[in-house]
Prior knowledge:
Strand order of the largest sheet: 4-3-2-5-6-9-7
Radius of gyration: 21 Å
Number of strands: 9
Order of helices and strands: HEHEHEHEEHEHHEEEHHH
Shape: elongated
Mean pLDDT: 94
CATH class of the largest domain: Alpha Beta
Low-confidence stretches: none
CATH superfamily of the largest domain: Vaccinia Virus protein VP39
CATH topology of the largest domain: Rossmann fold
Strand content: 15-25%
Distance between the termini: 62 Å
Largest sheet: 7 strands, mixed
Oligomer: single chain
Structural class: alpha/beta
Amino acid sequence: MNLNELIPFLKELNIKPKKGLSQNFLIDPTVVKKITQTAEVKSGDIVLEIGPGPGALTDKLLKLGAKVYAVEMDPILAQQLHRFQNGNLTVIEADILKFSLSQLPPNIKIVANLPYHITTPILEKIFLNSFSSLTIMVQKEVADRMIAVAGSKTFGSLSLFVQFYSKLHSHFIVPPNSFYPQPKIDSTVIRLDSHPTPNIDPIFFFSLTRKAFQQRRKMISSTLPFPKDGIRATLEKIGERADARPEALSLDQWVRFAQELNLMKKDE
Length: 268
């Protein structure tokens, strides 16, 4: 659905994009096509689409032969999605944060233009459920943090969280003029593939990393509730400096570090 099609569509329904729901509708068919190519959607795939809005992406997914579960919380837009019904579409009028993903088939492909104001809570929900791949549109700034590498200024607890549960496949930037209304920032489409999680209790792991990154300018030995000497020795054991700051450690190093601290805690 391009802009010349979208404007009359919205006028006929007597609705406007809701800022509170981060409704910036995709109007560039080229971007829609590139999203489905990035997600590698093919006939017979089962796809969860989050926040389909007017349905530009929904239409393309169905035409590719996918079986689509479209979760849309706006009741008017949810009802309008039925115009694409070809036997492969299930429209679910719900808030994705309140919808139980366990109702869907396992190892599903997820494709979504995520509401920018609740990106992280949605990711947290997705990662705790079974999925095959996740192809999402997010703010470029958020995507940069998600895929950042250790040692960079953008590497942080979000980077570790995303990389703990998934592996980057590919990504591309989407300019503001691909949307109506135009956002003030660039967006990024990023594909993440599910992979086995590291051998560490995630609750313990993320309690450590989040606490450390809350004071990212301080040395790790100064921020965590363990003996400083023990932390310094553990950092050196995994090949890092004793005075390392949190962004210096890669995911693998953080996992090894957490495993060592977990053993230290059990020995106390």
